[in-house]
Amino acid sequence: MKFYKKTWFIVLMLILFFPVGLILMWRFDKFTIPKRIIITILLLLFFGWMFTGEEKISADQCKQSIDQVKAQLTTLQSEYDELSVNIDKYKKEIATLTRKVESADKITAEKVKDAEDKIRKESEAEIKKAIAEAEKRADEEIAEAQAEADQQVAAAISEAEAQVQENTYVAAETEASAAPQFFQNCTDLRGTHPGGVPSDHPDYQPKMDRDKDGWACE
Questions:
Q1: DSSP run (H or E) holding 150
Q2: Can you tell me the distance from the alpha carbon of 99 to that of 93, in angstroms, rounded to the nearest whole number?
Q3: CA distances from residue 106 to 93, 100, 111, 113, 120 in whole angstroms, order as listed
Q4: What is the pLDDT of residues 111-157, one digit of tens each?
Q5: With a threshold of 0.90, does the pTM exceed it?
Q6: What 8-state DSSP symbol labels residue 216?
Q7: Rounded to a whole number, what is the largest CA-CA distance in the chain?
Q8: Does 30 score more than 80 pLDDT?
Q9: What's residue 168's pLDDT?
Q10: CA Rg, the chain, in Å?
Q11: How many Å apart are CA 170 and CA 164, to the nearest integer?
């Protein structure tokens, strides 16, 4: 601490050079406010008396001055006490408001958290619902595709079976038509083939081609 801020130096200045002492006393808040006021008034009265040229002050004047200082001090003390009470009151009100603000902040934070939780749950529910609907649509499309494929396979199988049956029937007819028939004589053969048969016909029999011209029973 610098020397001019110390109490002993300020007291010394009040004694030796009171204007500087008063400035330092009020500047650095030395002593309480009532004490500073008393010291200031007494110094002003003392040095005012010195500079007025009066040789002495009567006891009544001194007492009157002291009474005035005491009255002013009492007034200042009352104002100071009232100000202290108001300050304490304001401090309590500020503390109450601070608690209310903190409580409101806490409530707001809880509401925000609840809203976030609600939104998150709703979003999760919507996502699950969308996934379920997508899976349902996919299953339906797969089922439809499977049914269509089954129908196509069944149609292909039916068509193949019909083709096989047809081919079997044609082959049977071809085989039946290609199988040679045995006839006893030309009369019997002409009953089936009235104009006779050539040599490349399955029913051709050399014994019935008497002139050997490649045509039987002409």
A1: helix 59-178
A2: 10
A3: 20, 10, 9, 10, 21
A4: 888 888 888 888 888 888 889 888 888 888 888 888 888 888 888 88
A5: no
A6: E
A7: 198
A8: no
A9: 60
A10: 68
A11: 10
